[in-house]
Structures are given as C-alpha cells and as structure tokens.
Amino acid sequence: MASEDVKILGAWPSPFVMRPRIALNIKSVNYEFLQEQFGSKSDLLLKSNPVYKKIPVLIHGEKPICESLIIVQYIDEVWDSGHSILPSDPYDRAVAKFWATYIDDKWFPGLRTISRAEGEEAKKAAAEEVTAGLVLLEDAFIKCSKGRSFFGGEKIGYLDIALGCFLGWLRVTEKMGNLKLLDENKTPNLFKWAEKFSSDAAVKEVMPETGKLMDFAKVLLAKSKAS
Fold first, then answer.
1. Residues 128 and 210 both lie in one domain
2. Same domain, 190 and 215
C-alpha cells in the first residue's frame, strides 16, 4: 500500500484542482488540502512547482507531482483501491487522452472567452464555438461510453474528470451570460451525464456551489477589467 502522506496544493474554485481531488476520492485516499490564495504564491508552491509555479500540486511522501492530468494518472497508478480511472485498453486510453487534451487546449479556453468578450456579437460567436465543441464531445461520449453512464463506462473515468471539472464554470458562464450552452436537445447524452457526474459521491464534496462560484467569478472579472 502506498504511503498515505498526501497533500494537495490548490484552491477551491479551480477546476484543475478538482481533478486530483476527485481521483483521490475515487481511490478513497485521505489527503490534506492546502489552500493557496489567489494573487499570491506560497513558498511551498514555488518550491514544489518551480517551473510553472501554479496549482495543483500533489505532494506524496514529500515528492511533488505537477499538472492536473498527470497527477490523475499518477494517482491511478499508485493506488489500487477503488476502480481504475484510465482505460485499460491502449486504444481507449489514447482516445481519452486525445479528448482531454482537446478540452484543455481548445474547449475550455473558448469557454473563458465568453465572459471576456466585448459586445454581443463577440459573445455570441464565442458561445457558438463552445456549443460546437460540446457537440463534438457528445459524439465522443457516445463512442467512449458504449451506452453506459460515463465516458469511462459504468464509473467515472479519466475523461469524465477532465471535462466534468469544468461543469461549475460552465453553469456560471451560462447564468452570467444568459446563455444555454449545455442543451438537452443538442447534446442529450452530455446533459444526462452532467447530472450523474455532479451527483456522484466522489464529486459532490469538491464541486463548487454555483452561487459561491459566481461571486468569485464576478470578482475575477472586475479585476480583469480594471487591469
């Protein structure tokens, strides 16, 4: 059994920090959550992640592991409790990693663009791009889930964590922009998946409450506009 001396450096609003926390919950691993303050970086964070200087960082037995999806894979490989998070089949694993990269490199940056867009036309164009991405992910869900509840099958897997961590921010973006992005008619499977993911025991305790997250988002947006 791996050592249980586990810490997560992070902050509650961060979707990327949610990823290792969900993975640790799946594996039933106890950990200490060390909150970083936005706008400042602790000495422990700078020491643990001197290259990128950002959260999350998993500290396991005093050894730091950085980057959220790398941490999730590490957790899956180190702890054999709970179910496997990454697909065992090499092709399925490659497909899951492809879509996780798409989510981080293209889809989520598009979601962030909506709140920063100047004018209704720009906001509409950004929202259409995000919706088009969800349609792609709907198709990926159908192929990856093979008729089951999650991308990973009957239980939450790697790609579920990669996308599901953004559901809180998706809801906030919808409310603040008076938008409908995750549409039950356009993406019915993802719509049902989102409800199941959010209500899962491994997720509920780390999924930010929408109102609290919206208050935080308004503060961030105000600071961004002021600068």
1. yes
2. yes
